[in-house]
Structures are given as C-alpha cells and as structure tokens.
Amino acid sequence: MTGVDHELGGGNPLPLADVEAGLDSKSNNDTGNYKLGNANTVKGKVYNTSWFQQFKLLLARSWRSIVRNKIGLMIRLVSNVVLSLILAAIYSETGGGQKSIQDRQGVLFFCTLNQSFGGMFGAVQTFGKEKSIIVRERFSKAYYVSAYYMARFITGLPGDIIFPAIAGIIIYFPAGLNPDPGRFVIFLATIGFVAFCAQAVGLCISAYLSDFEAASALAPPLLIVMMLFGGFYINADSLPEGARWVKYISMHYWGFGILVKNEFSGTSISCHDVHQLSEEMSKVTEGNATVACIRTGNEVLERMSLENYDIREGFLGLLALTLAMHFLAYICIRTNKPKLLSLTQEQRKKK
User: Greater confidence, 295 or 337?
Assistant: First the structure.
C-alpha cells in the first residue's frame, strides 16, 4: 500500500482516479450508494475528503507528473538556451544608431513571439493528452474541478517563470537593449507574463475543443491573428476601424507595447550612421537620397502610434486577458462531459 493509500485509509485497492482524489468508490449496497463517513455531498455524489485535501493530493500528482518528465524539461531548457544564444549572437552588433531602431524592434517582437509559441503549444500538448482522463474523473465526481484547476495552475507557474527568465537574461544585454536595471526587470516580467498568458490561451483552446487534433489545428491560425494585431507588422492606427478591437485580445499587442515603451521611452538615439544610410539609399535609388535622423526614442514611439501607451495599462491588459482565458478554460472543463450512448428499451430490460 502506498503512502497515499494509507493516508486515505483504504485497505482495498482502488481505481487510480479515486486514490489520487482521496475517494472511496466502493458502494455499500447494490444501489450504488457511496460510503459517507465525513463526506461532502454534491448532487447525490460523495466526496470523502475536503476541497483542500483534494487540492493537496492533486497538487502532488501534478507536480510528480512534471518532475518525472525529465526529457520534456530538458528539451524545453535546451531549446530556450540554444535559441536565446542564437538570437543574442545575431543581434550582438546592434549598436545605438539609426539601424538599431529596427533591430531592437525586431528582437523585442521575437521575444514576445517566442514565449507565446512555447506557452500556447506547450499547454495544448500537455493538457490535450490528459484531457480524457480529467473528463472521466470529472464525470465520476472524483474531485472538484476547481481543486484540479488550481493545482495545475500552481504547478505550471515555476516553468512559466524560470524558462522565460533564462531566455531573457541570455538575450537582453548582448542584443544591446536598454541597460537600465529597472527596464531589465520590466523586460523579464513582460516576457514571463506573455508566456503565462499564452499558456492560458492554450488551456482554453484544449478545454473547449473535443480532441487534441482539433486543438492543435486551431492554435496556429489563432496565434497568427494575434501576431498580426501585435503592432509590429502593421501600425495600430492603420488598422481598419471595425477591426481595431481585435488588438485588445492579442497578447502580442500588450506584451510588445510594453517592451517597446520600456525600451525607447525617454532615450536618445545616435545619428552617427545617417551618412552611411544615405549613401546606401542613394545606391538603391540611383540618385541623391537623404535619411532623416530620429534623435529620440519618443519619436520612434510616435511613428509606431505608441506615444500614449502606458506600461501599467499593458500589464493590466495582459492580466485581464490571462484571467479571462483561465476562466473560460475552467468553465469548459466543468461543462465538458463524455457523450454516452443511451440504452434502448430492450437493453434496459436485459439490464
């Protein structure tokens, strides 16, 4: 008998779902009534443990599942480190001139994109594989859905904090981003929050759709739409009037806006490479060309229509989107039940 079995006080072997949830599904008689004891009853079903006890057991189960997946953790770590090193090498000669404006915008958007991909697809894959088990356990009233969801939420936090932080630390200073310590902290917090939000979106997709294949098919186009409204590929003021609301449900809009505002606000930009850029443009146009010098980061923000963007509002936007996605995912799990074939009249008589 395992430690969990002993704690639950069961001498007989129980189904895995019942053991993990601290339940005793053995019936007292042929009618299928459950043992009561100190049970909490919900709609005729019985929980032999409290919400907190269920949460504790589910937290332990979820944590063991994550820790045992050493290959998955190692792959996630190595991929983050290698990709970050490549990115740091590519942007290592950015400098502080006019060319650096485009370079810094690119690296900031890529950081947002990288964390959103990892968070969303990671959630789709992990939850998609365990969804059938959760639905069965939910259908049998093995535990409160809120206890399961809270346990899963908490066990996912370390990865959503540690891996983005590792990537950000490797990329930030080699890429020539703003060296101010406070801005560095905001950068790390932003990419971590984006990963956190992306995981919520992935959970929502997996919880809503019936199977793993459908969730995997929907995630890429949804992510692409969020990218398009993120403020990098098209200026926010250039969006059609009827479609501007879409940017508010894009994690890239909130995350990229924070990063750009954090990077350029109140800074100065060198014009030492303007002459070089003018010569390059003259060769392309086969004539005399001049390149205007952007001297301050505030000018960059004005050209991107982000001069009035507020970092606090950006974090609140990410928080609101994250909470909304988690709430929808929770509702979907609660309402998603397995579809059972109804018995015919003849089958009922035989039973």
Answer: 295
CA distances from 265 to 52, 130, 326 (A): 46, 44, 32
With beta carbons less than 8 A apart as the criterion, state whether 323 and 195 touch.
Answer: no
Residues sharing a CB contact under 8 Å with residue 63, sequence separation 6 or more, in sequence order? 155
Positive or negative, the CA dihedral 131, 137, 140, 143 is negative
More reliable by pLDDT, 239 or 169? 169
Residue keyed to tokens 């949830």? 21
**The tokens 């399961």 sit on which residue?**
148
Q: What is the mean pLDDT of residues 304-326?
A: 92
Say if residue 31's pLDDT is above 50.
Answer: no
pTM given for the model:
0.76
For residue 39, which of 59, 25, 55, 20 has the smallest C-alpha distance? 25
Buried b (16+ CB within 10 A) or exposed e, 129-143: eebeebbebbebbbb
Q: Is 47 helix (H, G, I), strand (E, B) or coil?
A: strand
| Gyration radius (Cα) of the chain, Å | 26
Looking at residue 30, its pLDDT comes to 36
Query: Distance between alpha carbon 169 and the CA centroid of its chain, in Å?
Result: 19
Cα 57 to Cα 64: distance, rounded to the nearest angstrom: 11
